[in-house]
What does this fold into?
Amino acid sequence: MARIDAFFRLMNSQGASDLHMMAGSPPCLRIRGDIEPVKYPELSHDELMEMLFEITPEQKLKVFEETGDIDFAYEIEGMGRFRANFFRQTHGTGAVFRQIPAKIMTIDQLGLPSIARRFAMMEKGLVLVTGPTGSGKSTTLAAILDHANRNRRDHIITIEDPIEFRHRRMNSIVNHREVGLHTQSFSAALRGALREDPDVIMVGELRDLETISLALEAASTGHLVLATLHTQNACKTIDRIIDVFPSEAQEQVRSTLADSLKGVISQSLFKRIDSGGRIAALEILVSTPACGHLIREGKTNQLPNVLQTGKKLGMCTLEDSMETFIKENKISPEDAFEAAVNKEHFVKYLRNVPEEWKEVLEKKTPAAPEKPAPARRGSYA
It folds into this structure.
């Protein structure tokens, strides 16, 4: 057993999502979103490197020595798998490990809306799951892919860095490819995938222009492409994709994206106040002719109106999702206020309103009606 395995067992027993190990600091766990130090002495650079090298594949060590950054997955039999990231920092080396659940949760278990099933069964197009780091994008995407695996008779290819959830064959063939191990890059794997008779292609992350361009090409040529992106909401997701391209290509990209985009799920994780754990608030965009028209015309700032009017189709704004959780006493108003783009909407729910927002709240609060003057005797009141 590797020496570092003891920290993974502690992580597992505490229900932590991440383990942080930095030279010059004691190990820390992220539990329900908060960093908690472990009762352990500060790690020296040499001590930490000894622990890390014990579990690192040889080819990854060479990459780390050359670049100062690596990603890979580490597995402990009977416990689970962990996504590792090593990096250099001021005091030496740092490492962060994210626990990958051993069991893939289903759409129902995650409480995802029924539109997620529709996304999984689409014949072609682009479906994006977005959100900040640590918001559960991979877990949501794995649930959608799991539904496709159970209900389609197709060929599914995943391209990841590193491989996280392992999907065993059900009704579909599933091939996992890891960047750096099975292929040189996301773009190289995508180019190869188009010659491998795929029906569904899952891209762990759309990182650069070439990868995004190839993903759009695959989505527009008869494949279902599922991917993640680090953006906060549906509108910014579309803008991010278009802005990656040079200005002279953006008009064509808008047209391609308008035709190929099928949906966006943007999510943020919040601490539950009614129970342990966390819950995801979702913003859902479903592609419609109106949505496609706005993308094609470069009017993505009007997409929130499409979200508001498309509720019957399964659409939802992040603000509506957070407000529902506040009313159901599942998340705190303060957390929703911090996460919201439109903070003004949540000021009314705060117990302690920040000084800079009190004036806004006063303007929103209607003045009490003046009391009518007492009627004079003998007059009509």
Residues 294 and 372 are 51 Å apart (CA to CA). The chain has 15 helices and 13 strands.
